[in-house]
Amino acid sequence: MSVLDRQVVIITGAGRGLGRAHALEMAERGAAVVVNDLGASLDGTGSQVGPADEVAEQVRRRGGLALVNGDDISEPDGAARLLEATLDAFGKVDVLVNNAGILRDRMLVNMSIEEWDAVIKVHLRGTFAPMSAVSRHWRELSKAGRDVDGRIINTTSSSGIYGNAGQSNYGAAKAGIASMTIIAARELARYGVKVNAIAPAALTRMTQNLRPDRPVVPEGEFDPGAPDNVSPLVAWLASAAAKDVTGRVFNIRGGHVSIAEGWIAGPGVEENRRLDVEDLDAIVPNLLAKARPNAMPNGRVPEEAPA
């Protein structure tokens, strides 16, 4: 039996890059795949059905089941239609993988409100709307006495959880997705739904221009930047092996996987009185001296970074 045999998996942004790799991995593992993609350009403009159709055809050629959907999942009506189409075609949904995204990189002082809004809408609202739709569906099943084993796998980024210059819109959206993952995991546990997120690093059309000096990997050698390195973790989180895993964010690149531990309360003091400005003159520098520095974009704090 494949690890996802007879599962029905919705993947947003599945026409290219990571989403395409996820769709093929899930299908290889026995899942029926719903390939949602607008076919938009990197900045979110335009649309074409070709990429999604090509992925679905690859799945079918391998003997799998695939449905193509072109709804805009950042709109509640689009997310609802995506769910309805899935239920009409397959009768159920077991897994939602939120992967759709765009880039409008700009330094904060140069970023327009349109660039801000476009990225927040696709990433943050485009994660919330499908989550909301499938969660309501699973809640109804749970309240009707049905056993539910739903999985939501979101896509955050090191830009959101660790920070990266030039991506305040993208990073804010991805940080929001990480927080939403943790909150949703707590809210949906009562209905049998597990919610996790990945922070992937891979060479896709969204990242290929970020490092023009990236070395070329010789043919036949392991390529840490290949998108299909990320997909086994997504498939594992969708499988029975991860039935008790929820509210977690995973870093994944190449052969590396780690847990992103997130914000924690570090060094502190507590007084049974109001702290005034003069008190803070002494307290805050002392706390800062004890606190770990913020992580670098790779997730490591400076003193832990390898030489």
Can I get a quick summary?
The chain folds into two domains: 253 residues, NAD(P)-binding Rossmann-like Domain (Rossmann fold, 3-Layer(aba) Sandwich), CATH 3.40.50; 40 residues, no CATH class. 38% of the residues lie in helices and 13% in strands. The protein has an eight-stranded mixed β-sheet, sandwiched between helices.
Summarize the structure in words.
The chain has helices spanning 17-28, 50-61, 76-90, 113-143, 158-161, 168-188, 231-238, 277-290, and strands spanning 8-12, 32-36, 66-69, 95-97, 150-155, 193-200, 249-253, 256-260. With 307 residues, the protein is an alpha/beta fold. The chain folds into two domains: 8-260, 3-Layer(aba) Sandwich (Rossmann fold); 268-307, no CATH class. An eight-stranded mixed β-sheet has the order 3-2-1-4-5-6-7-8, sandwiched between helices. Helix 1 (17-28) packs parallel to helix 2 and helix 1 (17-28) crosses helix 7 (231-238). The termini are far apart. The relative contact order is 0.12.
Q: Which second-level CATH architecture of the largest domain applies?
A: 3-Layer(aba) Sandwich
What oligomeric state is this?
A: single chain
Count the E strands. Answer: 8
The secondary-structure class comes to alpha/beta
- Globally, the shape reads globular
Unreliable spans? none
- CATH topology of the largest domain, anyone? Rossmann fold
Strand order of the largest sheet: 3-2-1-4-5-6-7-8
Mean pLDDT: 91
Q: Which CATH class of the largest domain applies here?
A: Alpha Beta
* Largest sheet data: 8 strands, mixed
CATH H-level superfamily of the largest domain: NAD(P)-binding Rossmann-like Domain
Helix content: 25-40%
Number of helical segments with 4 or more residues: 8
Overall number of domains: 2
Computed over alpha carbons, the radius of gyration is 21 Å
Query: DSSP strand (E) fraction?
Result: 5-15%
Spatial separation of the terminal alpha carbons: 44 Å
Q: Helix-strand pattern, N to C?
A: EHEHEHEHEHHEHEEH
